[in-house]
């Protein structure tokens, strides 16, 4: 068994432990890029998205101590999603108000009561899975025979054909296919464990 | 080459992936993989499973923000900020016990959290102690601002008492100080709270407008879109959508008009469309009145959008029900053509157009709009109130028939309209008839009058008094129910994709699990084994273990499966799908053993008591009997004048019963293929049917919410069970006691004690 990557639960516990300064760094490393990608996917420019990530992180940093994360809100990730969504919502709201058409829209727009949509949630899940896969790859790599890993990396990430990858690694074509499937299955395993841990 | 015969088996592929294979076999299998695309794919597919590992991995290179991104300095800054505060707290906490200081040191030793004080026009909120929320208002945690308008602010909030999400509408601070506006806001809110209708957003609570406190309304949070957004691109909607949305809006309006409430501000922004159900929800009843008078007195001008205002409103006259109808017409016009009928560059121009201009009829602007729909819209846009159709319910009814013209619609989509509006119908229709002289659809008008009879409740009897218990709060329409063979539990198939198992004795929910994507249409217990079958909109038929609720097996039909039944000996399942295809599955072998296709969609199937026949009914009005083994057609019986919604064989003898559209309850002889009787006296369409154990009585479930018990020999209804507030979709009889379960569109199941019924 490989050691499991930071689970959400342990990360939250560690974040609450004020002597564990590494936990904060781990949080930033694993959730930062995910937040950035998610926010960019909403159409924000690089600088605005970076500001918003910063905002979300500040909120997390300041409140993590009082978060009873497991209780009713569906866990840390759901809480993080709520924070992020609300920051986004505030951002768009503000932009709408200062925008040139603000007066017109205020005139023509009455009060709707529309909640968030599924698409947002799906995007969030997708970015989360990407984050998990990156983490899982980093964790798995040292446990796997280097030639097998190269065969996987060349075909799955670099998009090489099995034949080319075989030439480069000195493996047969069939062995390359097998190598790729083995690493894929291990990644899948790691991700499924993570997802199951959370639900 | 002979690749096909040599394909690697699943266990072989699995061994390869796990590495649990000797070197020699591995080498030969790898050799096979060199040239076999099929096995290459199979190998990778098995490795991947349900998570899209391949595409996730392929993206992995671009996961981090680019090097020159502002992300990196931003992260560095926040990192330092947090780390400083971390160490700062540790030292200060260690050196000086932070007593009485302003720092909000957390008791269980975390980081400090200083709740931010909401600012701007949200100043009335108290700070929330959870940063996921932007503030607090009494026991509501405020998540975000959903919208701002002339009247106030709409917030999404979490009700911490009732643990649910709600929408809160807060009167604009500029009016909070105006007592008249505040009082009116609350009064209108209270009036709106009296409207309970499927096409009106529910009002939950009106906060008291006490001195110094903000006035606000708490209402249902709708996950969906506004009609305004749907119209944003200036394109017309599909004609059937125009009719459907308008029909449901008119129905919602009729509920308000019945209570003498005028909406006064019908416009696309106030018409919400729920994402999951596509159902229309009308909001903001009467609220326009809150601020209009104030604005008028302050500025002498009517503000807000006049695009959908009636001529009498632009003149500042009192708006009545027919003023709402004009606005509905204007909204319909925009849906039908993509442009608002009285558009002009300025508000004043719009008002002048409303007074003086008659727009081109929609069917001339958009050829896709039929004449009846176009004429109806133009009649709503009549300048004089007296020339418009008389009531919202008559408009809803007219639209129901127009919707029908676009294809068969489920009666479910036809909303209930207020009963007290019935009396007004004749007058309005005479007028409509005058207006719509075209002979071609005089027939349609007659159809309307029939339709009115169908779905407006005219309840001749008050219902018998049989006691019932309620299994409440199922998340949506309960399409199907079944008593377990021991009579202790009931399985329920719910619209949201879940299946619920209820314990009848104490009305406790024992289990709820996600069974299908989309609607679960049916559920049935196996006659003797601990199994349950379910079918859904996702085309799947699933067999569950009722001890563990593990999935035992599943089969994929070609489309949504609305009819499923076990064979009496419990070895087979018959399923009928929307494409008219019947499937017979063998439970133990897991195979499909027979299949055939007929016209129309299948809505109900059943096995005869001796297991020799299968009956199939559906949209094409024909009752078909098939040989259960070969699926050869044995009988084809006609008589229904609309879709047939369900079928049941009697537990003994040759009888079978079918129910369906327009009060049809028919009894047939399966041997001769003839109709033996028709049971008269139902209200509306009939959805559910079941025989009692000796085949002498029949129970039916009706569109208007009643269930009825019939004595077949005399054809009399011997009992009427009333209690559901909406259509009864399924009925099931307790195999062990005199109890009937009914499931309804109102989200409840009722279990009726029939022991008081004289035999």
Automatic annotation (TrEMBL), chain A:
InterPro entries: RNA_pol_sigma-70-like, RNA_pol_sigma-70_dom, RNA_pol_sigma70_r2, RNA_pol_sigma_r2, RNA_pol_sigma_r3/r4-like, WH-like_DNA-bd_sf. GO terms for biological process: DNA-templated transcription initiation. Coiled coil: none annotated. Pfam families: Sigma70_r2. One of its GO terms (molecular function) is sigma factor activity. The keyword Nucleotide-binding does not apply. Residues 28-97 form the RNA polymerase sigma-70 region domain. Belongs to the sigma-70 factor family. ECF subfamily. This is RNA polymerase sigma factor CnrH. It comes from Stieleria bergensis. The gene is cnrH_2.
TrEMBL record, chain B:
PROSITE patterns: PROTEIN_KINASE_ATP (PS00107), PROTEIN_KINASE_DOM (PS50011), PROTEIN_KINASE_ST (PS00108), WD_REPEATS_1 (PS00678), WD_REPEATS_2 (PS50082), WD_REPEATS_REGION (PS50294). It comes from the Bacteria. Residues 91-105 have a biased composition (Polar residues). Its EC number is 2.7.11.1. The keyword Transcription regulation does not apply. Residues 140-400 form the Protein kinase domain. PANTHER family: F-BOX AND WD REPEAT DOMAIN CONTAINING 7 (PTHR19848:SF8), WD40 REPEAT PROTEIN (PTHR19848). This is non-specific serine/threonine protein kinase.
């Amino acid at each position: 068994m490989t050691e499991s990557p930071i689970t959400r639960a342990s990360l939250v516990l560690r974040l609450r432990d004020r002597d564990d300064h590494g936990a904060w760094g781990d949080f930033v490393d694993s959730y930062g890029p995910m937040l950035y990608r998610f926010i960019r996917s909403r159409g924000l420019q690089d600088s605005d998205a970076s500001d918003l990530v910063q905002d979300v992180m500040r909120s997390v940093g300041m409140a993590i101590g009082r978060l009873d994360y497991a209780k009713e809100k569906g866990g840390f990730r759901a809480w993080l999603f709520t924070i992020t969504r609300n920051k986004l919502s505030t951002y768009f709201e503000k932009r709408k108000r200062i925008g040139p058409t603000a007066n017109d829209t205020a005139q023509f727009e009455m009060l709707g009561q529309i909640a968030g949509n599924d698409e947002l949630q799906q995007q969030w899940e997708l970015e989360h899975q990407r984050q998990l896969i990156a983490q899982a790859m980093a964790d798995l790599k040292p446990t796997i025979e280097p030639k097998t890993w190269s065969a996987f990396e060349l075909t799955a990430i670099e998009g090489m054909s099995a034949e080319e990858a075989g030439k480069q690694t000195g493996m047969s074509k069939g062995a390359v296919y097998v190598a790729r499937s083995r690493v894929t299955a291990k990644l899948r395993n790691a991700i499924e464990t993570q997802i199951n841990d959370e639900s | 080459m002979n690749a096909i015969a040599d394909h690697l088996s699943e266990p072989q592929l699995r061994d390869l992936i796990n590495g649990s294979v000797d070197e020699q076999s591995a080498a030969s299998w790898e050799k096979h993989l060199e040239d076999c695309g099929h096995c290459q794919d199979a190998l990778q597919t098995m490795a991947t499973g349900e998570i899209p590992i391949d595409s996730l991995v392929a993206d992995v290179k671009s996961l981090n923000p680019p090097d020159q991104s502002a992300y990196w300095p931003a992260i560095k800054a926040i990192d330092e900020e947090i780390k400083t505060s971390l160490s700062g707290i540790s030292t200060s906490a260690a050196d000086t016990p932070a007593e009485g200081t302003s720092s909000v040191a957390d008791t269980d030793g975390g980081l400090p959290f200083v709740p931010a004080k909401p600012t701007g026009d949200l100043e009335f909120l108290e700070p929330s102690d959870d940063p996921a929320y932007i503030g607090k208002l009494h026991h509501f945690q405020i998540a975000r601002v959903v919208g701002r308008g002339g009247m106030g602010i709409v917030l999404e909030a979490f009700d911490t008492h009732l643990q649910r999400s709600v929408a809160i509408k807060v009167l604009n601070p500029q009016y909070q100080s105006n007592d008249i506006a505040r009082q009116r806001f609350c009064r209108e809110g209270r009036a709106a709270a009296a409207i309970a209708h499927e096409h009106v957003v529910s009002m939950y609570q009106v906060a008291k407008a006490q001195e110094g406190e903000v006035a606000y309304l708490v209402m249902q949070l709708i996950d969906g879109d506004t009609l305004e957004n749907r119209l944003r691109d200036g394109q017309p909607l599909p004609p059937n959508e125009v009719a459907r949305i308008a029909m449901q809006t008119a129905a919602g309006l009729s509920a308000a008009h019945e209570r003498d409430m005028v909406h006064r501000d019908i416009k696309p922004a106030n018409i919400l469309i729920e994402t999951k159900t596509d159902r229309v929800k009308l909001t903001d009843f009467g609220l326009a009145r809150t601020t209009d008078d104030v604005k008028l007195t302050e500025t002498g001008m009517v503000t807000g959008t006049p695009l959908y205002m009636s001529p009498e409103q632009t003149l500042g006259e009192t708006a009545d029900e027919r003023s709402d109808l004009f606005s509905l017409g204007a909204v319909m016009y925009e849906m039908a053509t993509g442009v608002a009928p009285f558009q002009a560059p300025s508000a004043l121009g719009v008002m002048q157009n409303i007074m003086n201009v008659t727009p081109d009829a929609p069917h001339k602007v958009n050829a896709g709009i039929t004449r009846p729909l176009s004429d109806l819209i133009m009649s709503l846009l009549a300048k004089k109130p007296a020339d418009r159709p008389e009531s919202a319910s008559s408009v809803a009814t007219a639209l129901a028939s127009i919707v029908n013209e676009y294809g068969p619609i489920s009666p479910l989509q036809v909303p209930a309209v207020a009963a007290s509006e019935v009396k007004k119908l004749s007058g309005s229709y005479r007028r409509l008839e005058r207006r719509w002289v075209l002979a071609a659809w005089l027939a349609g008008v007659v159809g309307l009058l029939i339709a009115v009879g169908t779905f407006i409740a005219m309840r001749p009897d008050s219902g018998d008094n049989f006691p019932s218990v309620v299994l409440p709060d199922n998340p949506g329409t309960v399409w199907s129910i079944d008593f377990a063979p021991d009579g202790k539990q009931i399985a329920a198939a719910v619209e949201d994709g879940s299946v619920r198992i209820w314990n009848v004795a104490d009305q406790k929910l024992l289990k709820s699990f996600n069974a299908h994507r989309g609607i679960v249409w049916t559920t049935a217990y196996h006659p003797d084994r601990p199994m349950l079958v379910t079918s859904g909109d996702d085309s799947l038929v699933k067999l569950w273990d009722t001890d563990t609720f593990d999935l035992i097996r599943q089969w994929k039909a070609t489309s949504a499966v609305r009819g499923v039944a076990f064979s009496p000996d419990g070895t087979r399942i018959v399923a009928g799908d929307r494409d008219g295809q019947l499937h017979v599955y063998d439970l133990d072998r897991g195979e499909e053993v027979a299949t055939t296709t007929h016209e129309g969609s299948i809505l109900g199937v059943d096995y005869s008591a001796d297991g020799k026949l299968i009956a199939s009914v559906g949209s094409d009005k024909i009752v078909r009997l098939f040989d259960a083994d070969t699926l050869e057609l044995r009988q084809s019986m006609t008589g229904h004048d609309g879709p047939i919604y369900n079928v049941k064989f009697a537990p003994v003898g040759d009888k079978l019963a079918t129910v369906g559209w327009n009060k049809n309850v028919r009894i047939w002889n399966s041997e001769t293929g003839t109709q033996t009787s028709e049971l008269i006296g139902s209200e509306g369409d009939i959805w559910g049917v079941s025989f009692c154990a000796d085949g002498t009585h029949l129970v039916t479930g009706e569109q208007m919410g009643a269930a009825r018990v019939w004595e077949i020999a005399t054809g009399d209804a011997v009992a009427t069970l009333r209690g559901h507030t909406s259509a009864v979709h399924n009925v099931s009889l307790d195999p062990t006691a005199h109890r009937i379960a009914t499931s309804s569109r109102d989200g409840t199941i009722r279990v009726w004690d029939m022991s008081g019924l004289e035999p």
